Amino acid sequence: MDLTNKAILITGGTGSLGKALTQHLLTTNPGIKRLVIFSRDEQKQFEMAQEYPSHLFPQIRFFIGDVRDFDRLKRALKGIDYVIHAAAMKHVPIAEYNPMECIKTNIMGAENVINACLETSVERVVALSTDKAAAPINLYGATKLASDKLFVAANNIKGWNPIIFSVVRYGNVMGSNGSVIPFFLKKRKEGVLPITEPEMTRFNISLQGGVDMVLHALEHAWGGEIFVPKIPSYRILDVAEAIGPDCEKPVIGIRPGEKIHEEMITESDSFYTWDLGKYYTIVPSLLKWKLDDFVSHFNAVKVPYGFKYNSGENTDWETVETLRSLITEHVDSTFKL
Question: DSSP letters along 212-249, please?
């Protein structure tokens, strides 16, 4: 995707995916007009600014702000063409304990992003979702489902504005802040890897896979789609075996709000789900474009009614060996047994 002379803003830009997007965008599109890193953590912005000094990367801007603050968002979006919305409260137990804080960021923040984009000259918006938004049982998932609905419905209220809103939904990003693999790598030094539930499974995607998916949606979305990648699953016990085969693995019980298996497409979603090859897409129930044209353009194939996509029933699995290789490649290059 050619982003020459485009101005891009990433909310939550100092997070794992925001940093991966920044590196990819600046490497592959040196002609970017401006790249704004919008986040509320000044320390993370300070540290990231050391990696991207202004004399080497004059197009990058660091903008302190919170998606809860509409006026600040609107100011940051002046002159921006594309928005990638990655800001969120994402830790499940913390959201369970602080529910209104999660709602303010993940739902009200999403609404602020939408309205600020509609009132400026933004052309395209891609919002990040999560597998926990499909049939949610925890507050984080419920807030992200509400966020998804807001971004999909934003295409219905834009009026004359040619802006396009879409969503990308994927599973655990390998090596992201707060995820299980960095946690196990740290705990390995203690000789104990706590297992919440032996049967637990999760989807797995690399940071680069997440970046590629965001850029795919940015370039190809027609408006209102939820893009879902075809990715492998892993068993939590296989992750533990890959990282610490000699470690103790006590079962400590499932945490508040956790599922045994994660879903990305529910059976109820199947009526609106199409197979695009590399990705599935859930199209909006209220279409602003012709479905026949969409199907023809992307050679889309309708999934059967009753289709569902969850980590426990996946047909593609990581093994202990592939996990070790991926950890070395994507998480810790010094990892070895």
Answer: HHHHHHHHH--SS-EEEE---EEEHHHHHHHH-TTSB-
